[in-house]
Structures are given as C-alpha cells and as structure tokens.
Design brief:
With about 180 residues, this protein is of the alpha+beta class. Among the domains are: about 50 residues, no CATH class; about 80 residues, no CATH class. It is built from 3 helices and 4 strands, in the order αβααβββ. It has a 4-stranded antiparallel sheet, with no helix packed on it. Helix 2 runs antiparallel to helix 3. It is rod-shaped, with a radius of gyration of 50 Å.
Length: about 180
Amino acid sequence: MIRASRNVERTHLLTASAVLLACSCLAQSSFAQESARVLSATPILQKVGIPQQVCTDQQVEVQGQKSGSGAVLGAIAGGAVGNAAGHGRERGASTVLGAIGGAVLGNELEGRGADSVQNVRQCTTQTVYQDRVVAFNVVYEYAGKQYAVQSPQDPGPYLQVQIVPILPQAVAPVAVQKRHPPRY
C-alpha cells in the first residue's frame, strides 16, 4: 500500500512538472510583433574630443650668410704675395702662409650677406569638442498607454514592439509524505 501511494505521488509530481515545462515553453515562444506610435524621440548628446591640426604662418628674419668668395679671393691673393715674397726653400712655406692669411683677411672683409625674411609654418594639435548623438529617449504609445525606452537610433514615426504574454505562475504540487510509526 505504501509503495502504491508513493507511485501515485511520483506520477502527480511528474505530471505537474510536465505541465509547468509546457507552460514556460509556450510563454517563451508565443509573442506578437506590433507597431506603436512614437510620440517623441529626443536625442541624447555626448561631447566627443576630436584632435585637429592647427597651423600658423609666421615671418622670420634670417641673417645673411657669407658666400665664401672673400676667403677664396683672399687665399689666391695671399698665396701670390707669399710666393713673390719668399726666396728659395722658403718660397713654399711663404706661399702657404700667404694663402692662409689672405683667406682669413678676405673672409673678414667680405662681411655677411643681406638679411632676408622667410615664412615659417608652425603646427600644433588641439582637441576640439563636438556634440554627438549617442542614443534617443523614445516615448511611444501602445494600447492607449505611454511607454519610454532608450533606442540606439531614431525609430521614426512608428516603433516595432514585441508583445509577450505573461502567464500566471503555476504552483507545483508538493509531495506530502505520510509518516508511519516505526514497526517493531
């Protein structure tokens, strides 16, 4: 008798579990897709830093450079004078010394060239902040009621909504075990 009542309890428990499982599967797979009228779609803005290169042109005065022609002409003239002044074996040494002295003197006499003005471009990177739309706060109407949702893009005049029925939770029968006094 005890064995038969336990089998009946197990059968009731398995039946209740199967009904709960079937109801939960129906609840998950049965839905409808409907259109809801959008009442407003307000953009949500966020400041985004964008690096930009900013360049400016400036005029810079550049000092004139020596051309080197004074040193060359001085070396030639000094070498000729040293060669004419030297005698015998000293003639080579006096030519070299005359050329060196003439180059130094010619370079000093030449002076520097005329100053000039050059355009110099200087560039820096600056961060510019701009407002960017990151989402939309959407208010829509469905079945006479208003709802709000956040959407990643503008939904337009209508929003697709998914209607999922909510079934009442079934209560599983609790197996009650009868306690029998121990037999001695």
